[in-house]
Amino acid sequence: MRMSESQNQATILSVGLSQRQEEEIQAILGPESSLERHPFAGAGKQSGSHSPLMALISWRGVHGRINALVRDGLQQEESLPRVLILDAEVAQADLERVIDAGFTAVLRYPLDPERVQRLVRQLQDSQGMYKDLYHMAQEICLEREILSRQADLLQFFNKILTNASFSLDPVEILHQAHQDLQILLPVKSVDAIFWQADKEHRLEAELFIHEYSGKIMQDKMIAFLLQSAVKHADEAIDNYHVNFMSRMEGAGELQEVTSEAVLVLPLRFGGKSFGCISIASEKISRLGRDRLQTILAAVNHLALALRNALLFREMRTRADRDALTRLPNRHFFDERMIQELKRHQRYRIPLTLMIMDLDHFKRVNDTYGHQAGDMVLQEIGRLLQEMLRSSDLAARFGGEEFVMLLSHTTEEQAWFLAERLRIAIAKRRFHYKGKFFKVTASIGIASLETGLFARDVDLFAQADAALYRAKAGGRNMVCLAGEVEGEEECRQYA
Asked: Residues with Cβ < 8 Å from 403, sequence gap 6 or more?
């Protein structure tokens, strides 16, 4: 109870008053107010936890030091009301000077209790209004700060969503997210892993990670993302492929791949996880709740953009791939052919085209059935992928016809490759429903060497003419463009 009364008391500072004067004033004020003596040198310093209601200053006690008191002693409490107690004779000129020094009121001694109490009530009302206004100002400032933060968050989310929607390339989206997240914290890298089930319902994963310095750090990041994928997918990853992204300008170097340095968040769509995104930063372990919630919301925006990018890439892959052999189709080949011809024209690099046709393939379909023929085409597609370089392009041109576009490859080099391919096909025994059979292939080759590019050269027509000669010459052979029938370069094998 005493503590409650003490907390509700008004504190009044006594400066220069005598003990007798303080007792008289305390009697007038009553228990609702507490009079505290302050020495001159520290008159402006509060000793208690309450803000003083006013300061009562004795003319007699501080006579001759009024200006110094106002200037120095009370300068820390500019808003504190100062009341002068005239307890000695004072000239009119001195009184005017004192009032000009910043006193709220002047009380003559002996004091009029009613006037003192009225002054206290007025100052209490003023102090109450001031506190109310102060709290209102604080609330307004707080609301403004909250609105400002919300506006910043909306601007940040709008930037994340807008930038992510500009591209349908997962690499570009991750690079842009790396830049945008710098607003929240210093990000060293943004990597990702996506997974989906194949036809046998096994999970295949695709990783997008930055080119970290050193294979050890790259392997650590790959292992870290794979572990995170297993955790969020609730299944083991049977197979995975890694795409290395170029380093972002200004990106820092990871010292260690741990949960304290790398934040991994799931990417969800339709209530199901399809991947994870990792954000590497030195401040991951010190992230506050608000900032973490902001990052979670940003990742939800990125999840939609990344999902759309993956679906677009899958649709484009399906449109550019042959459904049976999984090789690129004719449309994709035609576009790549134009690009390679432009590269040859600009850089004068050798470019070779091979056209391969399976001999008497109609007999396979007629004898063993179309399913057996499909099986042969699938096997040939796998064989081409195995024997060609990753920089080469093998495509199904139509029916039983395949095309191979070989950059940085001379006609002679292509001939040796074609021979190995032809021999591999001729030696392979195909098996379907208990029956074994063989298939041969004829191949035509045309090449553009490193000399001047002739615009009227039709590379495809030359390779097709060479294939026609191989077919007409007995099949199961390789022919070069421009050869004359009977030359040794166009050879036939049994």
From this structure: 333, 353, 354, 355, 356, 394, 395, 397
List the chain domain ranges. 2-131, 170-320, 330-492
Question: Would the pLDDT of 493 be above 60?
Answer: no
Q: 2-131 in CATH: which number?
A: 3.40.50.2300
Whether pLDDT at 291 is above 70: yes
Q: Spelled out in words, what is the top-level CATH class assigned to the domain 170-320?
A: alpha beta
Q: Give the C-alpha distances (Å, rounded to integers) separating 434 from 99, 368, 383, 429, 431.
A: 120, 11, 22, 12, 7
Whether the CA torsion 195, 197, 203, 205 is positive or negative: it is negative
Phi, psi of 491 (to 5 degrees): -115, 150
Helix (DSSP H) and strand (DSSP E) numbers for the chain: 13, 18
Distance between CA atoms of residues 40 and 47, nearest Å:
14
Least confident of 168-177, 367-376, 469-478, 480-489: 480-489
Angle at the Cα of 405 (from 404 to 411), degrees rounded to 5? 95
Name the CATH code of domain 330-492 (choices 3.40.50.720, 3.40.50.1820, 3.30.70.270, 3.30.2130.30): 3.30.70.270
352 closest CA partner among 408, 311, 398, 309:
408
Of 91 and 74, the one with more pLDDT: 91
State the pLDDT confidence band at 479, using cuts at 50, 70 and 90.
Answer: very high
- Global pTM exceeds 0.70: no
